[in-house]
């Protein structure tokens, strides 16, 4: 995602990337001053250098990183790295660099690919993979045990401890997302509280706490609006400015989007769109892209709500941030060809997914005119507009979308 984050696990939730891959994982968490001295052992130095080189390795020429070969090449690379870091940890038990590899292997874990779902070639993403779930669960369990050991070790850096805690926190959040319930949300609330208590006294603590608090608040907004409102008030009373800013982020976003209800454009299929003329209806403006895994995962929900409530006054308008592959050095004819191909691909994708609403397309990716105008830095981004033209939400995803649409249509 384009917004600043401390670790890739919070950046990878979606929302958006600017690379050619659908969702990228940062190869290496940022370093921190004050790292412990490394072992002078020739064997340890050699082994660690091999791991660093492996992590930096790029696919051979001729392999498309977005295609199946690219995904399988990367899968093998991450498996080798996972095995290698574990071997370094066991073979060099007094070398403090062992913890760097143990943390990193969590952020570059293998997906344990066994196949690809239909449609993967048109829209490569993690959601299109078929994985060995048992092997993945076993890896995660082993990683959890290693990171718990790291937490008790005496030769770790703040950077490593934050990385470990971030991965463990994300595991708790993953459970809360996959199995939404009061019980899983409570476990996540406890994890948030523990994380902030653990790191608040240390370097950059308020920023760290703010990242975790925001992650928790986003989930609450999707699953439990009343709990989200209560947690926002708790954050507003915090003595840390960064936590108060998290609570007010939604309000600032709504203010920034004040003009979204006046959007006008000619859609990719030629339709004229005027959101202002939709006054009296509930309108969802959906910033998305065909390369965005979380966007694709949300499509069935949006389609279902659209089909159910369209004839009652619910409209959807898409703003697509496609990666066209166009560069400044290309000849105009080549640029036009790329732009046309990306547009055709997007329209076919929308038709295949049964998305009948209009799509704005200008081929500029995150430079899309409306994305720039309204400060959209991550996708999916959903802007929900009430019948009176008021912007009421930027987080209407999952079950919250239908409940908000029903409320705004007066069906509750």
UniProtKB/TrEMBL annotation:
<dbReference type="GO" id="GO:0017004">
    <property type="term" value="P:cytochrome complex assembly"/>
</dbReference>
<dbReference type="GO" id="GO:0016491">
    <property type="term" value="F:oxidoreductase activity"/>
</dbReference>
<dbReference type="InterPro" id="IPR036249">
    <property type="entry name" value="Thioredoxin-like_sf"/>
</dbReference>
<keyword id="KW-1015">Disulfide bond</keyword>
<dbReference type="GO" id="GO:0030313">
    <property type="term" value="C:cell envelope"/>
</dbReference>
<dbReference type="InterPro" id="IPR013740">
    <property type="entry name" value="Redoxin"/>
</dbReference>
<dbReference type="InterPro" id="IPR050553">
    <property type="entry name" value="Thioredoxin_ResA/DsbE_sf"/>
</dbReference>
<keyword id="KW-0732">Signal</keyword>
<dbReference type="Pfam" id="PF08534">
    <property type="entry name" value="Redoxin"/>
</dbReference>
<protein>
    <recommendedName>
        <fullName>Thioredoxin domain-containing protein</fullName>
    </recommendedName>
</protein>
<feature type="signal peptide">
    <location>
        <begin position="1"/>
        <end position="26"/>
    </location>
</feature>
<keyword id="KW-0201">Cytochrome c-type biogenesis</keyword>
<feature type="domain" description="Thioredoxin">
    <location>
        <begin position="254"/>
        <end position="412"/>
    </location>
</feature>
<dbReference type="InterPro" id="IPR013766">
    <property type="entry name" value="Thioredoxin_domain"/>
</dbReference>
<keyword id="KW-0676">Redox-active center</keyword>
């Amino acid at each position: 995602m384009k917004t600043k984050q401390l670790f890739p696990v919070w950046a990878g939730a979606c929302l958006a990337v600017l690379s050619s891959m659908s969702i990228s994982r940062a190869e290496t968490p940022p370093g921190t001053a004050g790292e412990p001295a490394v072992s002078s052992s020739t064997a340890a130095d050699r082994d660690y250098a091999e791991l660093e080189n492996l992590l930096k390795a790029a696919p051979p020429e001729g392999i498309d990183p977005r295609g199946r070969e690219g995904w399988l090449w990367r899968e093998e690379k991450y498996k080798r790295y996972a095995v290698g870091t574990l071997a370094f940890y066991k073979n060099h038990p007094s070398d403090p660099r062992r913890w760097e590899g143990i943390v990193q292997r969590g952020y570059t874990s293998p997906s344990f690919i066994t196949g690809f779902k239909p449609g993967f070639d048109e829209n490569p993403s993690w959601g299109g993979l078929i994985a060995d779930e048992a092997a993945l669960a076993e890896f995660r369990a082993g990683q959890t045990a290693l990171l718990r050991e790291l937490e008790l070790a005496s030769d770790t850096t703040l950077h490593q401890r934050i990385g470990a805690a971030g991965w463990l926190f994300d595991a708790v959040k993953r459970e809360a997302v996959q199995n939404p319930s009061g019980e899983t949300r409570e476990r996540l609330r406890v994890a948030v509280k523990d994380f902030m208590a653990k790191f608040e006294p240390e370097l950059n603590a308020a920023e760290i706490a703010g990242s975790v608090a925001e992650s928790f608040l986003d989930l609450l907004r999707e699953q439990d609006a009343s709990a989200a409102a209560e947690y926002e008030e708790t954050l507003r009373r915090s003595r840390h400015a960064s936590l108060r800013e998290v609570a007010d982020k939604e309000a600032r976003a709504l203010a920034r989007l004040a003009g979204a209800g006046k959007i006008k454009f000619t859609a990719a299929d030629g339709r004229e769109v005027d959101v202002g003329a939709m006054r009296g209806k509930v309108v969802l403006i959906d910033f998305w892209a065909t390369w965005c895994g979380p966007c694709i995962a949300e499509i069935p929900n949006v389609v279902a709500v659209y089909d159910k409530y369209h004839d009652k006054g619910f409209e959807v308008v898409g703003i697509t941030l496609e990666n066209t592959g166009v560069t400044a050095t290309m000849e105009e004819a080549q640029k036009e060809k790329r732009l046309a191909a990306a547009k055709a691909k997007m329209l076919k994708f929308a038709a295949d997914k049964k998305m009948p609403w209009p799509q704005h397309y200008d081929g500029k990716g995150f430079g899309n005119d409306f994305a720039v105008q309204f400060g959209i830095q991550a996708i999916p981004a959903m802007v929900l507009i009430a019948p009176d033209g008021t912007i009421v939400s930027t987080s209407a995803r999952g079950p919250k979308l239908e409940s908000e649409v029903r409320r705004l249509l007066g069906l509750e």
